[in-house]
Specification:
The chain has 422 residues and is mainly β. The chain folds into two domains: 206 residues, Maltoporin, Chain A, CATH 2.40.170.20; 136 residues, no CATH class. The protein is built from two helices and 17 strands. The protein has a 17-stranded antiparallel sheet that branches.
Length: 422
């Protein structure tokens, strides 16, 4: 069950200013069926779409709520240049209860508490503020065959995040073990430069660069926790700060040698911010470097009846994440590579019928052994080892029909029918 609301107001002011203000809210709650053992499905003890009748399985659920308010002002000068300023304030609340492993967990604070059901409750509350300032130049034409513009911008964001992870026991959702109780204050200051140039009417080049500095202040109330079987010598808690920086260029070249043929090639570098609770005091925050390379071709008829796109890609991550079902969280697994291709066909044989089909192939591998931990100082690794939870082949097909049925009470009446398969 869910509900959403959205309001927007556009206005114009003096000195060629215009703006947009927006407010939105969303809330949803759902029961979850959870995961099934593969051997149970293969032995027909449960159906693929069934749920275990165990109380710890039927109690799984997810909840999310969001609220957002923002405003954007823009001024267009006489020469066509644009300057804009935007700001937002947002709140997000998320909570899930899921059981991935049945009855394997044991309490860290009281080892005698075991077998109460691995119902993991995770909570995340985020209060954030952000702003963005940009300026795009007028259209520049230094030569007859070259024209384009340049955009510069600054961004900033600040978030106050609270996170919890507990093990719950039914029927009253009693907490029988605490795993995470933390506050994170994270900030991001960024600068970017972007340009868009047309070289004759056949080639378009877009290039830019972005730099970010991220700050983390973490108060982990359960860090340095002393297990029950060890003698306590300190109070739990681990407070630390860290900082990281990243610079990423990107470039895209598009060509249209023929009216029915488009070519594109691109390269870009980005980053994925680290999990704050995995950072150490004073650490140069290890932002995951992401390098992506892509090339493709698009064929299309001039009347838009048929188009086909094919693209190959390669993505390289300096440090990837994989899901750990025992902790219900993502863990570092080391650098990875993804290579593959995508084929997408769209057809509109008649005005009221639209069909599409796509095929995605990916070969995702682990390039080096996962980082060593206190529990596993020598993680197993095989060259070319496949990444878990990455489907090698995904097929998608969609068919949609739209047709005018007439009028009802002076308003147009339209019929719609859609079907999809994955």
């Amino acid at each position: 069950m869910s509900a959403a609301a959205l309001g927007q107001l556009a206005f114009e002011g003096p000195a060629r200013f215009r703006g947009v203000a927006i407010v939105s809210g969303y809330g949803a709650r759902a029961n979850l069926a959870g995961v099934l053992r593969r051997d149970d499905v293969e032995a027909n003890r449960v159906g693929f779409l069934d749920v275990y009748r165990d109380p710890s399985a039927t109690a799984q659920s997810a909840f999310a709520a969001r609220a957002l308010g923002g405003v954007r002002l823009e001024r267009v000068a006489d020469d066509g240049s644009r300057t804009s300023l935007g700001a937002f304030l947002a709140f997000a609340d998320y909570r899930s209860r899921e059981n991935f492993t049945g009855y394997l967990q044991r309490s860290r604070s009281n080892p005698e508490w075991v077998g109460r059901g691995d119902l993991i409750e995770q909570g995340n509350q985020d209060l954030g503020f952000g702003a963005r300032v940009t300026h795009r130049t007028r259209r520049l034409a230094p030569t007859r065959w070259l024209a384009g513009d340049v955009e510069l911008g600054l961004t900033l964001a600040a978030h106050r995040i609270e996170q919890q992870q507990n093990l719950l026991q039914l029927p009253q959702n009693a907490t029988w073990d605490r795993r995470i109780d933390a506050q994170v204050r994270a900030s991001d200051i960024g600068f970017f430069a972007d340009s868009d140039w047309r070289i004759s009417r056949f080639v378009r080049v877009r290039a830019g660069v972005r730099a970010d500095v991220l700050y983390f202040d973490v108060d982990d109330a359960l860090g340095n926790f002393t297990p029950a079987f060890q003698r306590q010598s300190h109070y739990p808690g681990y407070r630390r700060t860290a900082l990281g920086a990243a610079v990423g260029p990107r470039v895209t070249v598009e060509g249209r040698p023929l009216r029915w043929l488009d070519l594109v090639a691109s390269y870009g570098e980005g980053y994925r911010s680290p999990q704050a609770l995995q950072l150490a005091e004073g650490e140069n925050a290890p932002l995951t470097k992401v390098r992506g390379l892509e090339g493709g071709v698009k064929l299309h008829t001039c009347d838009g009846v048929l188009s086909a796109t094919a693209a190959g890609y390669a993505t390289f991550l300096s440090s990837d994440l994989a899901f750990d079902p025992e902790e219900g969280a993502l863990e570092r697994v080391g650098p990875t590579t993804r290579r593959g291709f995508v084929v997408h066909v769209v057809a509109k044989p008649v005005p009221w019928l639209l069909g599409s089909a796509s095929l995605t192939y990916v070969h995702a591998t682990l390039d080096e052994p996962p980082p060593a931990t206190a529990e596993n100082s020598s993680p197993p690794f095989e060259p070319g080892q496949l990444l878990p939870y990455v489907p090698p082949v995904v097929v998608r097909a969609d068919l949609g029909a739209r047709h005018a049925l007439g009028e009802l009470g002076g308003a147009k009446l339209e019929g719609r029918l859609d079907a999809g398969f994955s």
